[in-house]
Amino acid sequence: MLIFFLACSDADIKDDTAQPIDATKSPGCGLDPVHAIGGTQSTIFVDDVERSFYLSIPMSYDPEQLHRLVFGFSGTDWVGSQIQDYLGLEEYGTNTIFVYPDPLWRTFEGWGTYGGWLLGPHAYPAHGNEDLDFVEELLNTLSAQYCIDEQSVFATGHSWGGDMAQVVSCFLGDRFTATVPVAANRPYWFEDEQGRAISCSGDTAVWTMFGEADDHFTGQSYPGEFGEECRDFWVHERNCSTQSNEFYLGEDLCFSYSDCDAEVRYCLYDEQYAHQIPWDYFSKSTMEWFESFSPQ
Predict the structure, then answer these.
(1) What is the mean pLDDT of the segment spanning 135-146?
(2) Number of domains within the chain
(3) Over 90: is that where the pLDDT of 5 sits?
(4) Beta bridge partners of 247
(5) SS in 3 state form for the chain?
(6) In a domain, 73, yes or no
(7) 11: number of CA atoms within 13 Å, CB side?
(8) Which of 240, 239, 208, 241 is nearest to 225 (CA)?
(9) Could you list the residue range(s) of the whole structural domain that residue 27 is in?
(10) Residues of the chain with pLDDT > 70: what percent?
(11) Spatial CA neighbour of 267 closest among 282, 285, 288, 253
(12) Terminal CA-CA length for the chain
């Protein structure tokens, strides 16, 4: 069912919900770096399974200085080192550690064998908690090794990685401050066995981006349907009012919803981007939004 919202124009929108929050130092503050400064491939064990990730520590890393932590989730058959350049976040990040987890290659019933994410208990055939456990253990490990503001943990991702950014916002909502899922599927991962919307933990702010001419999700009944379904889930979950404020990124019209428990944003981006990220503004706008929650 389509939900309609009242819009108010405000090109220079400033949201009261994107306020700095008190920093919480992680146990790793004051410790020497465990990994090489710059980019490095590494592994951890989660429930006796070796999992890998690509970690990017800034050249200016100071163990006495609080840092943001940003997760970047890859799409189908990609790994972390590939999505790093695609997302292009690091050019715009200051005092930020970036981590790009690698998925496992699995056989998904009815789909085939892919490198992809398990999206929680309701996401058949991509159901399971192993990847959520991986993300949580990776967050715990990095917090123990590096000086991280534990209230400045963020995530983004594209396609199947956008799905993953959506689900950590819900199932790990007490660990993530804000997320930007891009080109994600419809939110079937948030529906129980009776098709009812589940409730989430925490109060992660969520900014969904979706393409009006997405050529990957061909089963939509109208352009942007899956993006609007994700938006509607978060508007309801975050108890937003039906009023929204308009703002523009390039030529693309976006919305920010007001009076929410945590900020909710939505952009339906131009057909030129198809199923890809809106490369003209995604990287810069995403990092500016993340940094608005925690100016270091």
Answers:
(1) 98
(2) 1
(3) no
(4) 254
(5) CCCCCEEEECCCCCCCCCCCCCCCECCCCCCCCCCCCEEEEEEEEECCEEEEEEEEECCCCCCCCCEEEEEEECCCCCCHHHHHHHHCCHHHCCCEEEEEECCEEEEECCCEEEEECCCECCCCCCCECHHHHHHHHHHHHHHHHCCEEEEEEEEEEECHHHHHHHHHHHHCCCCCCEEEEECCCCCHHHECCCCCECCCCCCCEEEEEEECCCCCCCCCCCCCHHHHHHHHHHHHHCCCCCEEEEEEECCEEEEEECCCCCCEEEEEECHHHCCCCCCCCHHHHHHHHHHHCCCC
(6) yes
(7) 5
(8) 208
(9) 6-292
(10) 92
(11) 253
(12) 42
Helix 225-237 / helix 160-171 crossing angle, nearest 10 deg: 10
Q: Is 1 inside any structural domain?
A: no
Give the CA-trace dihedral at 227, 86, 287, 11, to 10 degrees: -50
Is the pLDDT at 17 greater than 90? The verdict is no
φ, ψ for residue 103, nearest 5 deg: -75, 170
**The tokens 């997405």 sit on which residue?**
214
pLDDT for 243 beyond 90: no
pLDDT digits (tens, 9 = 90+) for 197-214: 999 999 999 999 999 989
CATH number at residue 11: 3.40.50.1820
pLDDT band at 296 (very low <50, low <70, confident <90, very high): low
